[in-house]
Amino acid sequence: MNVKLLVSALLLGTAAMPALAEEPVFDAQAVRAHVTFLADDLLEGRDTGSRGFDIAANYVASQFIAMGLKPAAPDGSFFQKLTVREARLDGAPRLALTYGGKEVVLSETAQVLVRPSLTDAKVAFEAPLVFAGFGFDRPDLGFNDYKGLDVKGKIVVVLTGFPKGTPSELGAHLNSDKAMMAMKRGAIGVISVPTTEDSARRPWDKRVAISDGPAKGWVGTDGKAFTRTPGIKGGATLNPDAAAPLFAASGKPLDKILAEANRTGGKPRGFAMKAKASLAYAQTWKDVQSENVVAMLPGSDPAVAGEFIGMTAHLDHIGIHGKGEDTLHNGAMDNASGVATMLEVAKAVAKEKPRRSVMFAALTGEEGGLIGSDYLARNPVVKGEVVGLVNFDMPVLTYMFSDVVAFGAENSTMGKVVADAAKKAGIKLSPDPMPEEGLFTRSDHYRFVQQGVPAVFMMTGFEGPGEKAFRSFLKDHYHQPSDDLKLPFDWDAGALFAKVNYYTVMGLANGAERPKWYAGSFFGKEFAPKAAKAADPVK
User: Among residues 319, 448, 469, 314, which one has the least CA distance to residue 385?
Assistant: First the structure.
């Protein structure tokens, strides 16, 4: 036998056969390694603009370099730089309510909470009050809270949240848009009063505890902080106990209004209040420099290489603040776990060279109000179009999950890709188990949705031990110093979370068509009215 000829023939035969892609194996210890570094005390909680955040940003950039990814920032680096303004109250705010022939002045946090202004060093205005229910001005969607109300030049008083029974993603969007709706009606201020459900979920003392941090926003090249509601001079949140006499003076007991709001489908009607309010407060500003860590992988198919699938995870946490022996907030789950799983997915994707290009971004300022994602969505770094986005935020990895919740999946053709990915990973999809939390608008993908990009983000599900573990984390560790490496991490769960997201990203990047909004999706109609739509799926 001529061994050389046999070997040559085998090599030629192998070369002629198409290479079969191997299924990636996700390493639980690699996820652990990333989290261990990012949640270390030395990074001091990765607050936006801090040295600890910059160290974390350099770590992520070094990982991108090791993967062979290309820098995506305008200056040829991995860092899209931005200025973030921090605003803190300078002294106590003064809210004066005039009703029933008397003036009641509220300044204590036990009564009122005021968010500092990013655009005005001093705020002072006075106007009549008008109650506008939940503050929704969308008659086309069945919400007509401003019907018959004149709020031009006035302060609107609204309830927090949205009517019970409203689809959670729609309700979350409308809830986040209340100030915009008020401004379009001509209002100059907004005062919010928590509902019964909202107060049960977040008692007033919890609100006070998290109110000590600064307001944050990105600053444009003109030196002005960006705002979507320039016509709103200011606002406040009023403790229901302090608000009750105000409503009583107008002959409308607050307890009855809250009871109506607590009923499924309940929509308290608005009315002109027999009262006025003046609000005055000052703030100090501090501008800090921060960065989004951005990279890209060119697509292998020239026909679709200009279409990018985005992968995002916020790198920041809330730093050092508060009272007590431990004031360092490491953010191991929020969001070192999300960054860690994104990095492992990025590593696997980089080896595959999919048809479409992929953008990777570790974002700053999520905790301050989705700042880095808003800046990136409005200031693209890729020479192409982001056509779909997968976001990684706070997978709770203290248990081996058997299902995931995919927020946004039902709005676009991304939903089928996610469903196939879950099936391939051996898990199932479940509906939103906590609609009252309004999670769809509370993470970075939402800023891309507002720019018309279909998006999805997954959280570990509630099946089996999931609900107890997830709710326990939210109750005892979320935004607490105890969100650290002492938590009982199940690193194999991290590997599984990476796997289902990998299948999702690869399904989108290699798909025959780019993701499309469904024709009946509110978000597609609202933010991408001119984009081609897919027919709604048959249910």
Answer: 448
The Cβ of residue 445 has, within 10 Å, a number of other Cβ atoms equal to 27
Amino acid at 77: S
Cα separation, 354 vs 511, in Å, equals 10
Q: Identify the three-state secondary structure at position 70.
A: strand
CA nearest to 175, candidates 149, 137, 144, 147: 137
- pLDDT of 10 reads 35
Amino acid letter for position 401:
F
pTM (2 decimals)?
0.92
Q: Cβ-count burial of 323 within 10 angstroms (0-12 exposed, 13-18 middle, 19+ buried)?
A: exposed
- 5 confidence band (pLDDT: 50, 70, 90): very low
Q: How many other C-beta atoms can be found within 10 angstroms of the C-beta atom of residue 263?
A: 12
Q: Is 474 helix (H, G, I), strand (E, B) or coil?
A: helix
**Structure confidence at residue 210 (pLDDT):** 82
* Contact between 317 and 329 (Cβ < 8 Å): yes
Cis (ω within 30 of 0) for the bond into 335?
yes
Q: Tokens in use for 484?
A: 């650290």
pLDDT, tens digit (0-9, with 9 covering 90-100), for 241-265: 999 999 999 999 999 999 999 999 9
The pLDDT assigned to 18 comes to: 34
Q: Which two tokens stand for residue 443?
A: 């993470």
How far is residue 504 from each of residues 65, 384, 388, 430, measured CA to CA in Å?
23, 21, 11, 16
What torsion, rounded to 10 degrees, do the Cα atoms 335, 32, 486, 463 define? 70
Tokens representing 206? 């919890």
48, 364 Cβ separation under 8 angstroms: yes
Measured CA to CA, the distance from residue 503 to residue 420 in angstroms comes to 8
CB 142 within 8 A of CB 307: no
For residue 438, what pLDDT is reported? Answer: 81
d(CA 45, CA 43): 6
Distances (CA, A) of 132 to 144, 151, 161, 168, 460: 9, 9, 13, 21, 37
Q: Tell me which residue of 277, 526, 318, 515 sits closest to 417, measured CA to CA.
A: 515
Q: What are phi and psi of 352, to 5 degrees?
A: -90, -25
Taking only the tens place, the pLDDT of each residue in 434-444 is 887 888 889 99
H or E segment and range at residue 79? strand 79-89
Helix, strand, coil fractions of the chain, as percent rounded to 5: 35, 25, 40
